[in-house]
Structure formats: C-alpha cells, structure tokens
Design brief:
The complex is a heterodimer. By secondary structure, chain A is mainly alpha-helical. Chain A contains ten helices and no strands. In chain A, α2 packs across α3 and α2 packs parallel to α4. Chain B is an alpha+beta fold. Chain B has a nine-stranded antiparallel sheet, sandwiched between helices. The chains are: A mainly alpha, B alpha+beta. At the A-B interface, α1, α2, α3, α7 and α8 of A face α1, α3 and α4 of B.
Chain lengths: ~190, ~280
C-alpha cells in the first residue's frame, strides 16, 4: 500500500469512528477502555491493511477486529464478559406488547417526549452483553444478519434467534422502566 | 399469533425475507389484520431504538488522539518510493487532465449519466406494486388520512395536497393508499395514485440520504429534475426543501403528466409544460 492508498484507507476507516466507539462502549462500558479499544483497532487494522487491502465491507472488517481485540483483552484478564444464559429469558416477555398497545405507552405518543430516547438508551444499556451487542449491531449500526454473523463468528441462524430474544428482553426492560416512571409520577 | 409468524415479521422488517417467502408473507399480511397490527408495533419498537442513535457520542479528544497514533504508524516513503511516486504523480496528472477534458466534452454534448439509487429504488418499488407483490399498508382515497398515517412513522413531515375541487367534475386523479419502504436505515414514504387507470408511484424521503443524480437534467422553477427511463418506466427525481422525491409512471415523453398528482392547478400545467421535451 503506497502513501496515497494509505491516506485514502485511513480516511475511509476514520469515517467509522463514531460507530466503532459506540460498539466499543456497548462491549466494555468504561469510556477510557472503549477509547483504548478503538485506538488499538485502528492500529491493528492499519497494520493488517499494510499487508493486504481488506476485501469486502470495511466497516464490518473493522468491527470484527475490534471484537477479536475485546475477546483477547478479556481473556488476558481471565475474566468472562457478563453474558447471561441467553436462553434463560422469560418467554412470556415475547407476549403481546402491552407497553405499545396501551395508549399511555404507545411510542408514537411518548416519542414526543425527550424522555423516551433516554429510556431506550437505558434499556439497551441494561441488556445482557450478548443481547446488547446484537441490538447495537443490527438497529444502531444497520448490519445485515450475515454481516453480524461474520463479526460474531457464529451462524446467521444464531444471530436471528439471539436478536429475537434480545428484542423480547428490550421490550420487557422498556415496560419495566415505563411502569417505574408512572409509579414515581403517581401522587 | 404463532412464534413463526412473529419471526417472519421481524425478518420482513429487517429486509431478511426474500424471494418467494417475501411474496407469500406479503400476501398473508394483506389479509391478516392481526399481523399488520403486530408488524406496526414491531416497526415502532425498531424506529424508537433507531431514534436513540448515537448511543455514545465520541469524546472530543479521541479524533486528535487517534490522528496522532496513526501518524506514528504511517510508513515513511523511501527515496526510491518517492521517485516512483513522482513518476506516478506525473502520469496521473496527464490521465486526470484527459479524463477532465473527456468528461467536460461529454457533459457539453449530452448531459446524461446513469440513474441515481433513489430512482432505481422507486422504479423497483413501482414494479413490485404493479405486479401485486407490494401490498399497501393503508388503503384510502383521502390525502388527509394518509398524511396522518405517516405522522411519527417517517422522520419528516409529509402533507399530501388535497384534491382540487371543481364543481361537477370528477377527480383528475385518485389516491390509492400508502406504505413505508426501507431506505438506508430509514423509512421512506410510498404513495400510490391512479390517473386515467394508469398507476403512478411517489416515493418521498429525506434529502440527507437520497440524492437525485444522473439522467437527463431539466431545470424548472429553480429546481433540477432528473429524468430517467428504466425498464420502460419513466422516473423523475428532484430535491426540494429537505425532501427528495421520485415519481414513477408509464406516461408519455418524460412522464411529466404524472406531476399533476401534487400540482393539479395552473402551476401544475405550467410544470408539465416545463418538463415536456422541447
């Protein structure tokens, strides 16, 4: 890769800074660690790109590097990320979405209030790591199921089922938050 | 509702349901009010999550920190590399000059480039609707009702013009209904009309994600209209006040007659004349 190609690659890679930082934060939560993880991702990416230009989607490629670094980081610290058993989520949470059908809880009503955005953020932050990760990759970053499968290193079917449970858990979190909010507002 | 159907709803909204499965699901959706309601609820949840972007703003110091770290990592060019680079630079300058002259010459002669993405998506959507593969999510002849339906579903305000009222005369065109279309992680508004029994599709999206380009450019009323003919359909695309529009029909010439769905009065007649080939 010559200087010109290097510069072009660097510029293209830096366009994904916000997305990579958001993903890093969703994995490590700590802002300083997230910054370190993003910086290391770029340095590793540049090093790898010097050997051969990455084929395919650059953003997905950078996300894959970031995730590998995160896994290695956790392994080095001999700690596992705080995954909860993903199958343990209450299946009843996937029942009809009362928080939406109830007029008070309909997002199109509540969206008018700034509070919903904060509630969504909090609900996403409260998800278990494995769930938060797929919600961020799919609905915040817009990756396809196949791209997510590539980043996570698992079959697309696993992505599909994990996303399904993650959405159910997200609904449950939102309902819980909204009930709490109503309880606090009650006289 | 079975878990299978709920999974299909999610796959559909995530654009992961393709081919025959998609067609079958859309056919089921057209006849199942329960699934349409569930689809709407799921769509609201996804839209609410997307509204929360970005979840974590980048710290102000990070870009500078990264730039510094990357500068340290950039390989310095060797003397040989620099000489080769100079030769390449000279060669590139000559090639660039040739390309610029060629592009300018072609632009002067015939300002026609390929269709934009929004034009292609609009034509594809129109084709699927005409073939019965794209059910409308709301069927109504009322512009007010459809405008209200789009509220909080698309990230912009869309107010469809009312029918002009001419006593004793039939409506010049008829609204059929509307639906949402996925476009660049957002929803675009799709509106279906009929004029003299011929279908017209209008696709509206935010101008930040859709950029009319290419085709034949016609300037009228301070706006640039891009005209393309794709698969036998005529498509006009343009941007106005933060929104990008694509209008598809099979009308004659540039399909300019379809413009009356939004501009039925004297201004519309002037617009239709303005877009007509000279």
């Amino acid at each position: 890769m010559d200087q010109r190609e290097w510069k072009a690659f660097e510029e293209a890679a830096l366009e994904h800074l916000e997305a990579l930082y958001g993903y890093a934060r969703s994995l490590v939560r700590n802002p300083t660690e997230a910054e370190d993880l993003v910086q290391e991702t770029y340095l590793r990416g540049m090093k790898a790109a010097r050997e051969s230009t990455p084929a395919g989607n650059l953003k997905a490629w950078l996300f894959t590097i970031l995730r590998h670094l995160w896994i290695n980081h956790w392994r080095r610290r001999c700690q596992g990320p705080d995954f909860v058993p993903l199958e343990s989520v209450d299946p009843a949470a996937d029942e009809p979405m009362d928080w939406i059908t109830d007029e008070r809880h309909r997002p199109d009503v509540i969206l008018e209030q700034q509070v919903l955005r904060d509630q969504i953020r909090t609900a996403i932050e409260n998800l278990a790591d494995g769930f938060r990760e797929v919600i961020v990759l799919r609905y915040i970053e817009g990756f396809s199921y196949n791209q997510i499968a590539q980043i996570l290193g698992c079959p697309a079917g696993t992505v599909m089922s994990r996303l399904s449970r993650a959405r159910a858990e997200l609904r449950r979190q939102l309902l819980h938050q909204m009930n709490e909010s109503h309880r606090r507002m009650a006289p | 509702m079975t878990g299978h159907v709920r999974d299909q709803i999610t796959l559909y909204l995530d654009d992961e349901l393709q081919g025959e499965d998609r067609v079958l699901f859309e056919a089921h959706l057209a006849g199942c009010a329960g699934c349409r309601a569930a689809l709407e609820e799921e769509r609201r949840l996804i839209a609410a999550v997307r509204q929360a972007r970005p979840l974590y703003p980048v710290p102000a110091t990070l870009p500078a920190r990264l730039a510094h770290a990357l500068r340290q990592a950039v390989p310095a060019p060797s003397a040989t590399r620099r000489r080769v680079a100079s030769l390449w630079f000279a060669l590139a300058a000559v090639v660039l000059l040739a390309v610029v002259v060629s592009v300018v010459w072609r632009t002067i002669r015939r300002p026609v480039l390929g269709p934009s993405e929004i034009a292609q998506v609009a034509v594809d959507t129109h084709q699927r609707y005409v073939r019965g593969q794209l059910p409308l999510e709301i069927q109504s002849h009322s512009p007010d009702e459809i405008s209200r339906w789009f509220e909080n579903k698309v990230p912009f305000n869309l107010k469809l013009p009312r029918y002009p009222e001419y006593p004793g005369q039939a409506k010049p065109y008829e609204l059929q209904g509307a639906r949402l279309i996925s476009f660049h992680q957002e929803y675009a508004a799709y509106v279906s009309y009929q004029l003299q029994g011929r279908p017209i599709s209008l696709l509206v999206t935010s101008s930040t994600i859709a950029h009319p380009a290419g085709g034949e450019i016609i300037r009228w009323g301070g706006l640039d209209f891009h005209f393309d003919a794709l698969n036998g359909w005529k498509v006009l695309t343009w941007t106005d006040q933060g929104l990008t529009y694509a209008l598809v029909s099979d009308f004659e010439e540039r399909g300019q007659a379809s413009c009356i769905v939004c501009h039925p009065g004297p201004q519309g007649r002037s617009l239709v004349e303005g877009l007509k080939p000279q």
